[in-house]
User: What shape does this take?
Amino acid sequence: MAETAHSRFQHVYTIVRFDFPVDQDYPENSVAIVKVLSSKMLAKKELSRLCKLNAAKGCRYEMRITRLVP
Assistant: This one.
């Protein structure tokens, strides 16, 4: 998704956790939205913190941009 401002909705930044190995019977249980932040800078800091904190736990964190619909 492009980061250019949307005319109607505010951009927010989600931190998504992927747990490995993926549950083959219920793969949806291996993905979770951990946090949603309104600042890209804060989201990057939190992403870095979570990656370091949980590096040995078999999970990976990613940041994605989306839109807030009130």
The chain has one domain: 10-68. DSSP finds one helix and three strands in the chain. The helical segments are 40-53.
